[in-house]
Write a structure and sequence with these properties.
The complex is a heterodimer of chains A (864) and B (296). Chain A is mostly beta strands. Among the domains of chain A are: 80 residues, Carboxypeptidase-like, regulatory domain (Immunoglobulin-like), CATH 2.60.40; 109 residues, TonB-dependent receptor, plug domain (Ferric Hydroxamate Uptake Protein, Chain A, domain 1, Beta Complex). Chain A is 5% helix and 64% strand. Chain A has a 33-stranded mixed β-sheet that branches. Chain A starts with a helix and ends with a strand. In chain B, helix 2 crosses helix 3. Helices cover 12% and strands 46% of the residues of chain B. The longest helix of chain B is centred in the middle third of the chain and has 14 residues. Classes of the chains: A mainly beta (864), B mainly beta (296). At the A-B interface, strand 8 of A face strand 3 and strand 15 of B.
Chain lengths: 864, 296
């Protein structure tokens, strides 16, 4: 019995030992008909599993695997190696296995190197330009439009996530001082590697860490192939329209971004409706209007319809610009630029204007043919040093403009008008900011002198009116300011300065039938000098923590006005609180209260004719208006997932001490102001969002807006005429590439506008609806076909609406080496007019406007 | 701001660029890239491109793709690295370094290229199975070329049953502890190449993604091309040393670069200098410190 037990125990122990023992599988991997193979992967795959035991063959092709248990039936050994066919064999424990592999073509699926579309570093978002670019994109502007969160206005102004852009740099250098359209609308997208967007950028290095910047900035990183040499593009196109008229479009863009010298040059001319002068507009922090014409009176010219300029503008335009940047000592740069532009525009329309009164309405039918010409010349010289210890910038600019125009009117008030308006302007902006530790101080002075004259002649059947105006204007704004941090989170700023302006006005109006208008004894001439001096002080505070940002500022000033002989206290307080729960989301609440300064441009007493219909009477109003507003904003951004959302609600109230007057006297409407209390208020709400769609290089966007504006500030023929205007707008957009050969853009825009005069039966609504569908086809590489259709639906009168359909088509072929040939046909259905209707103050204006007829253009484009 | 460098060496200062601090000034000496003859070590069959991201400031947080989840943009440094593999010997080196060297050489040859502002990558190169069964790392500290030979490391990989997709491949998770860090690697069993970024190897498939568990270092496959390329080893005057001595040299260089450089400076042939940059105020945070946990 005992012996039996002992045997049992021994058997059990042996069995246990056997189970615990490891099984060794070893062998050699060889090439069929060849030597041993090193680095082959030998994987033991138990039946139905993935397998976790493996070995890599050594220099002799040997491998050895220790298994926990003997292999079961169905288990296998998988042997694989790059360049050889994978072999699966049954594992054999206890023997030296020999496994033979035969050569086989490598069937590895390649992985294409793709730079990420978006990179996010703290406060910087970097968009990879090439991953957003489409083959037919010519300029960077085209690609920017496709980037989520980025909007490019029709005038070229760029904004990011609802904030207009503060600065645009190329390789970290500000080459154009705010006139970035000269670059973005011309530089080839292929030359740009990436677009870096820096939020809350502080452009002045000496202020960094003391005062936070509040605008985003863009830094363009160029492709290596575009650096240190001349690159550019040229375009030449010619065509004909069914008008018939010969068409041209030519431009040359040359850029060199080197270490010491950067140069941007443009020559462009066309008569295909493309507006060019706006490329000279400055935007952002350093921006300034392209022209500094003194604010004047005479207003005649070509009208503009709410359609793209290249649909309605009968133009001959040209622009020449050269901007050169020299980097001298480290951090110093000199920039010299000279620009010239020429514009000749023609337009024609027939219109119906309805004026609403408390006791009825009046409709005037007219026809208008106009031609204007403008020459504009500008020179600019800038010196800048942007260093951590100080900042210096001086911009000296001079410009001259000459414009003239001819307008002939038919209808209720037939006449011909002729105007000539030359001007010159010279200005200098200087800023110096010094820094010591956490304290910075700034001296800033902006001075500008402008003079111009305006001559208007109106020839009517019953007489000729002549208006001559001469204006000389000098303005200065000079201040010192200091910014300092008392703690890393809390900073203060204090600004004190002087704003002053002197303006002299001479005018004479001849030929008006004063008695007939009931204006006998009124003055039709002015010869005066008005001026003001306004010393001001502006304290400010900012607090920044991880979750909160607080801004307060309360500028106060005391102004002395000559000519009106008045002294006024002016204030403007502003405060905002921003709550940032996380890196993507922020809420802002802000409010402001202010009273208005007096406008010395209104200080005159004699009547001045603006055009055949409008006459302005000056007034020496010394009453101040009050305005208050509160607003809330929500902003969400998720750049990695390409999602942006921005919503704003704003309510504002105005208490006017003066009312605008509008009197219908004979053929004229006389406008002016009068001391009389009135009120106005408005609501504004908007929500816009965009989302990038990865797979199709797409972007979908939606914006919705609501405006409600009411005022009692208009006295029409002496009768207070309150009115209310409401607009609801809705515009979704979509673009994407559904297949390598098919891209689609769709945009829709709808608005409903109501004008009503409370207390009267007048209440009118207008609907406007338009949508555009564009198909971009790429049947073979290099060949692009674009077909687009636009449909406009406009309600012109209560029971009359008009549909307009415009169809365009373009085909282009890109050869290797950057040459592209194109053929563009616009307005294939040869529509000749476009009708629209808008409310403007207390009137409704409906117009049938001449548009560019069917035209066809053949061109060659190449970039180098 | 605590900055750190652990297993891969600092980029800027140990490559062709040498920097040291004099008072408030810092001086970067950019040496001309050396032009070497090469030993051919065979042919690779795959060219893999990896995006390498390193967190320089551990108070920040890095996510996938080197995205900064928290902190400043300067916290993450990225570099494009190449792995030539699939042959007998594999080579890991910096594409950025190769690119900047090429540009500097072109510009020295009078071509109109501007190397200014181009990212200068690390000089470290890693050769696996060279010499046979060993791993060789070369680097340049100041003007010295260093060569460190070690046994092919045993990572002690543990395979787990987690799978995901990277660059179109089904990849499997493996973990290991290596020289003080815990790593996660994702390898593709369908690519039977037992190799990977940096020193990583020894898995039954190519490693397409690897990172340490604290997410201070990340390697992600960005591209893969079937292409036979020669694997070449520069013939230079190497200072052969051990891993420990190499780290000691680097520590001396980083912690006391002025003394180190003044010792070295005597040896620099002025004609070897491509550019000297003097910066007045050294930006905060570039006083980098190195943990040297390998030798402490």
């Amino acid at each position: 019995m005992n012996a039996c037990r002992l045997v049992c125990i021994l058997v059990c122990m042996l069995a246990a030992m056997q189970a615990g023992a490891q099984v060794r599988i070893s062998g050699t991997v060889r090439e069929k008909d060849g030597g041993p193979l090193q680095s082959a992967v030998v994987l033991y795959v138990p039946a139905g599993q993935e397998g976790s035991e493996y070995a890599i063959t050594d220099g002799m092709g040997k491998f050895s695997l220790e298994l926990e248990a003997a292999p079961a039936a169905g288990d296998s050994l998988r042997v694989s190696m790059l360049g050889y066919g994978t072999v699966t064999v049954a594992p054999e424990a206890g023997t030296e296995m020999e496994i033979l592999l035969s050569e086989e073509a490598i069937s590895i699926q390649e992985v294409v190197v793709r730079a990420p579309k978006v990179k996010l570093y703290g406060d910087t978002v970097e968009f990879n330009v090439q991953s957003f670019a489409e083959a037919q994109d010519k300029s960077l502007s085209d690609v920017l439009k496709r980037m989520p969160g980025v909007e490019v206005g029709e005038n070229g102004e760029i904004s990011y996530n609802g904030e207009s852009l503060g600065n645009l740099y190329v390789e970290g250098m500000d080459l154009l001082g705010g006139r970035y359209s000269l670059l973005t609308r011309n530089i080839s997208a292929r030359d740009v590697k990436s677009v870096e967007i820096i939020e809350k950028h502080q452009p002045v290095k000496a202020l960094s860490g003391i005062a936070s910047g509040d605008k985003p900035a863009i830094n363009l990183k160029l492709q290596e192939s575009a650096k240190g040499k001349w690159v550019g593009s040229a375009n030449l196109a010619g065509g004909v329209s069914s008008a018939p008229e010969a068409l041209w479009d030519a431009n040359l863009f040359l850029m060199r971004v080197g270490r010491k010298w950067q140069s941007i040059n443009n020559i462009k001319t066309n008569n295909i409706g493309e507006e060019l002068k706006s490329e000279l507009n400055g935007y952002g922090i350093l921006g300034s209007a392209a022209d500094n014409r003194p604010s004047g009176f005479v207003s005649i010219g070509t009208g503009s319809a709410p359609l793209d300029a290249d649909r309605v503008s009968f133009n001959q335009s040209g622009i020449v610009n050269s901007s050169n940047n020299f980097r001298t000592a480290e951090d110093w740069k000199l920039n010299a630029s000279v620009s010239y532009s020429f514009d000749r525009l023609e337009s024609g329309n027939s219109s119906s204007t309805t004026y609403y009164f408390e006791d009825g309405e009046k409709t005037v039918l007219e026809g208008n043919e106009a031609m204007t010409r403008e020459h504009f010349l500008q020179g600019r010289f800038e010196a800048e040093a942007n260093r951590p210890d100080f900042y210096f910038r001086n911009v000296l600019s001079a410009e001259a403009g000459y414009s003239d125009g001819l307008v002939s009117m038919t209808g209720e008030y037939p006449n011909r008008q002729k105007a000539v308006m030359p001007y010159i302007s010279i200005g200098d902006d200087l800023q110096y900011t010094g820094r010591r530790g956490n304290r910075a101080f700034t001296v800033y002075s902006s001075n500008r002198f402008a003079m111009g004259s305006e001559n208007l002649t109106v020839i009517r059947e019953d007489g000729v009116q002549k208006q001559d105006v001469g204006i000389r204007d000098f303005g200065t704004d000079t201040y010192v300011s200091t910014d300092f941090k008392v703690s890393p989170r809390l900073g203060f700023g204090l600004k004190g300065g002087l704003e002053a302006s002197v303006r002299s006005l001479e005018s004479l109006l001849e030929g008006v039938d004063t008695a007939g208008l009931g204006l006998a004894g009124a003055s039709f001439s002015n010869c005066l000098t008005a001026a003001f001096v306004r010393p001001y002080i502006s304290p400010g505070m900012e607090y920044n923590s991880r979750h909160w940002e607080l801004r307060l500022s309360a500028p106060v000033s005391y102004a002395r006005y000559w000519f009106a002989d008045a002294d006024r206290f002016i204030y403007r307080t502003f405060g905002s609180v921003k709550y940032i729960p996380g890196p993507k989301l922020s809420f802002t609440v802000s409010g402001s209260a202010s009273n208005s300064a007096l406008d010395i441009d209104d200080f005159y007493t004699g009547y001045i004719l603006q055009n055949y219909r409008y006459m302005k009477t000056g007034s020496v109003n010394t009453d101040q208006d009050e305005s208050y507003s509160v607003s809330g904003r929500i902003n969400y951004k998720d750049p990695v997932n390409l999602f942006y959302l921005d919503g704003t609600v704003r309510k504002s109230w105005n208490v006017y001490a003066t009312s605008s007057t509008q009197d219908f006297l004979g053929d004229y409407i006389v406008t002016g102001t009068e001391s009389a209390m009135s009120k106005g208020s408005s609501w504004y709400a908007a929500l816009s969002g965009s989302i990038g769609i990865y797979g199709i290089n797409g972007k979908a966007g939606l914006s919705v807006s609501y405006t409600d504006f009411s005022t009692t500030s208009i006295l029409q023929n002496g009768v207070r005429t309150p009115y209310l205007s409401r607009t609801i707008g809705f515009s979704p957009t979509f673009e994407g590439r559904f297949a390598p050969w098919l891209g689609v853009n769709y945009a829709l825009s709808y608005s409903h506008n109501i004008l009503s005069l409370p207390g009267t039966s007048t209440s009118e609504g207008k609907d406007r609806f338009n949508h555009t569908l564009e198909l971009r086809l790429t049947p073979v590489k290099g060949l692009d076909i674009t077909v687009s259709g636009e449909h406009y639906y406009t309600v012109l009168a209560e029971d009359y609406a008009k549909n307009t359909v415009l169809v365009d088509a373009a085909v282009s072929y890109r050869f290797k080496g950057g040459i592209e040939l194109s053929l563009t046909a616009r307005n294939l259905l040869d529509q000749r007019t476009y009708a629209y209707s808008v409310f403007s103050g207390l009137s409704s204006y409906s117009c049938e406007y001449l548009i560019r007829p069917f035209n066809i253009l053949a061109g060659i484009h190449f970039s180098f | 701001m605590k900055c750190m460098f652990r297993h891969i060496l600092p980029f800027l200062f140990l490559t062709a660029v040498s920097a040291w601090t004099l008072g408030a000034q810092s001086i970067d000496v950019i040496l001309k890239p050396a032009v070497y003859d090469y030993d051919s070590l065979g042919t690779s069959q795959l060219v893999c491109t990896y995006r390498y991201c390193m967190l320089q400031d551990t108070s920040a947080r890095m996510g996938q793709g080197g995205v900064v989840l928290e902190g400043d943009s300067s916290a993450v440094r990225t570099e494009t690295m190449l792995l030539l593999c699939g042959g007998e010997v594999s080579k890991w080196y910096s594409y950025d370094k190769f690119y900047s060297d090429s540009l500097i050489l072109e510009s020295m040859a009078g071509k109109d290229v501007n190397p200014q502002g181009v990212k200068i990558g690390t000089a470290i190169e890693i050769y696996k199975n060279y010499p046979a069964g060993k791993l060789t790392m070369t680097d340049r500290i100041s003007i010295g070329n260093y060569r460190v030979e070690e046994d092919m490391p045993d990572f002690g990989w543990k395979l787990s049953d987690e799978w995901k997709e990277v660059a179109g491949y089904r990849v499997r998770k493996a973990t290991c502890s290596f020289r003080g860090r815990d790593y996660v690697a994702w390898f593709a069993p369908d690519i039977p190449v037992s190799d990977g970024p940096w020193k990583f190897c020894g898995l039954p498939g190519l490693i397409l993604e690897a990172y340490d568990t604290r997410n201070h270092y990340r390697y992600e496959l960005a591209g893969m091309e079937r292409s036979a390329r020669p694997v070449r080893f520069p013939i230079a005057n190497y200072i052969d040393t051990s891993l420990e001595k190499y780290y000691r040299t680097m520590r001396r260089y980083i912690e006391n670069s002025t003394a180190f450089m003044s010792g070295m400076l005597a040896d620099i042939d002025p004609s070897d200098i491509y550019m000297v940059k003097v910066k007045k105020d050294r930006p905060e945070g570039s006083g980098m410190t190195y943990g040297f946990q390998e030798i402490l």
